[in-house]
Amino acid sequence: MHLLETRDLCVSYGAVSALKGCSLYVDEGELISIVGSNGAGKTTVCKAISGLLDAADGEILFCGEPITAAPSHDRVEMGIIQCPEGRHLFPGMTVMENIQMGAFCRRARAKAAENTQYVFGLFPRLFERKSQYANTLSGGEQQMLAIARALMAMPKLLILDEPSLGLSPINVQLIFEKLEEIRSGGTTVLLVEQNVERALRESTRGYVLENGRIVMSGRGDELLGDEQLKKAYLGI
Ligand code: ATP
């Protein structure tokens, strides 16, 4: 049984069809990347899985159970946690307060203290800045905080939409290292990225999304060696 599976998932924005039958799966312990160019439908897949957008057709299963019609707050309680694009932190709250806000869901409340230790261990920089307001953090620190806050909800599946967007190379490197640390710590990660090469290099498997459909899938290193993908996405 897969942790997550989408079967022929279709999502539309009015007359615009953004996903046109997207099928993929994620197994426990994987770090999966969905890559593709602008407008391919990557954000739409994330939002459909976390329940922020309704499916027009197809099915989503989590731990073998259909969740296609489940509201997003129920999906959060099941362990599907999305770390949104653009970070969406609480800017007027401190680092510590933002982290505490991540433990709002029932399943995570009792373990908030323990999980705070875990996220500060993962991101010592956040511990150093725990009293600082979120809107005064650097871009890289804000991204760390967004991930830390998402981890406080104890995800079974952590979904990240473009976590490396707008970051300096050093911070991109750091975020990818942390994602691997999170995965090896037992949290399954689903990552959406425009940074095709980096994402595939770090992933157990990857999917290439084009115009609302999966056009290629495989192990990260296999996809990176594929001539067609190299030409289309890496300009090689
Ligand atoms: P990017 O990398 O540029 O963020 P993406 O792969 O995440 O792109 P989506 O944001 O999922 O792509 O968009 C998929 C398609 O759906 C695009 O053609 C986009 O224009 C369209 N779309 C997205 N949001 C809306 C909306 N609210 N209303 C109408 N069309 C939308």
From TrEMBL:
This is ABC transporter ATP-binding protein. GO terms for biological process: L-amino acid transport. The keyword Metal-binding does not apply. Belongs to the ABC transporter superfamily. Keywords: Amino-acid transport, ATP-binding, Nucleotide-binding, Transport. It comes from Feifania hominis. Coiled coil: none annotated. One of its GO terms (molecular function) is ATP binding. SUPFAM superfamilies: P-loop containing nucleoside triphosphate hydrolases. Residues 4-236 form the ABC transporter domain.
